[in-house]
Amino acid sequence: MKRKRALSAETPAKRLDTKDSAAKHGNRLIQALTQYGILQSVTGNLFPKDLCALAATSKAAYATVLPNQESLSSLLRLMSCDGSGVRLRQRFHRKSKYFEQFDCQEHVRCTNEDKQGIMSRPCISCGITTCNECRVHCVYQSIYQPPEDYDELPNYSGFALLEELEMGILSPEHFGVADMKPWQRPISGRYTPHHDQGFLDIPLESEIYALPESIDLIIDSNLGSGPLKGAAASESPYPSPVIQGFWNITESRKRKLCVDCFARRQTSWDTKCSCTLRSRFLDRWLCLHCFRREQRDEQEASQSEGCDCGQPLLEESSKLICLWCNGEVVNTT
User: Fold this and answer.
1) Which range marks the domain in which residue 42 is found?
2) What pLDDT, on the 0 to 100 scale, is given for residue 19?
3) Same domain, 139 and 286
């Protein structure tokens, strides 16, 4: 016969004491967070997902931590960059076979790892603090190959946007431009990578020839006057492998509309598009997560069949609009 375990009369009381104690500690935490100075100090040591987790612990915590959008924006500015942009780059970018073969060095460091020399700002779209390595760049110069001899120049490479293939990047010295400061190997706290600078070459593993392109000319090209074009070479395909990634993204921003819907989309007196890659991606401090979201939205919109109003589109009675600025794009090839 099994013996019944004797129940302690103090057990329920102890359980109640434990719950009361937890509730008291929780109330004390909420009371502490109501003091904005303490909340600021706590937030400065959190990442956005941690703040959301704290706010989700109870209704009282949510009301205290995130009472309104203005409070959320203020708290997000106090946080450090969480490094998610660098992780996205590592997920999308694929180093070439030459990286190991020539003992190349990669410099991709979030501000959390490298506290010196990297600027951080709130993302213009989501407001989350984003460092210069986690924001969108047109060209990431992230790979460095040391020179083999003292009289040789180092080689540089990197990636266009979040395109997969590693591409060659030529410094001004490679073109004999003597009036510009020589590039330096990225060193923590001293020299940063040369993003959006120099001349972009073909992907390192490409079998198609194309001329290098000035990165300044690519990112400053007026996209309202027609498709993005590079240096002319009769033996190179169009678009060339140098500008292919940029061509894809600039074409996906276009949308055909009927004349009436086009007029309703116009939001300014300047009805002609004059967007550039620089104005869209470099003049706006945009995190890579928001960059990807914007690209998905634009691709869905540009692939829609028919006009916004549901009417079929005729070539002679339609307008080409830029989804970035709502201005008209010249439809030339």
Assistant:
1) 30-78
2) 46
3) yes
The partner residues of 322 in beta bridges, in order of sequence, read: 254
40 and 118 housed in the same domain:
no
List, for residues 282-317, the tens digit of each pLDDT value: 999 999 999 999 999 998 887 777 787 777 777 777
6 belongs to a structural domain: no
* Adjacent-strand bridge partners of 214: 199
* Residue 226 CB partners (closer than 8 Å, separation 6+): 329, 330, 331, 332, 333
Name the E strands within the chain.
105-106, 120-122, 129-131, 139-145, 155-160, 167-170, 199-203, 213-214, 254-258, 318-322
Output the six-digit token pair for 132.
Answer: 């210069």
Q: How many residues does the chain have?
A: 333
Bond into 146 cis (ω within 30): no
Q: What is the rounded CA–CA span in Å between residue 83 and residue 91?
A: 13
Is 329 a domain residue? no
Q: Are residues 133 and 242 in the same domain?
A: yes
Q: Is residue 219 located within the same domain as residue 271?
A: yes
Q: Tokens 């992780």 correspond to what residue? A: 87
Mark 213-228 as b/e (b = at least 16 C-beta within 10 Å): bebeebbebebbeebb
Under-70 pLDDT residues of the chain: 1-46, 51-52, 55, 57-58, 61, 64-69, 71-73, 78, 113-117, 178-180, 185-191, 232-236, 267-270, 332-333
Task: Quote the number of domains for the chain.
Answer: 2
Q: What is the pLDDT of residues 101-153, one digit of tens each?
A: 998 999 888 877 665 567 889 999 988 899 999 999 999 999 999 888 888 88
Of 162, 132, 88, 159, which is closest to residue 286 (Cα–Cα)?
132
Q: What is the pTM of this model?
A: 0.79
Q: How far apart are CA 194 and CA 141, in angstroms?
A: 5
The tokens 């951080």 sit on which residue? Answer: 120
Q: Does residue 254 contact residue 330 with C-beta atoms inside 8 Å?
A: no
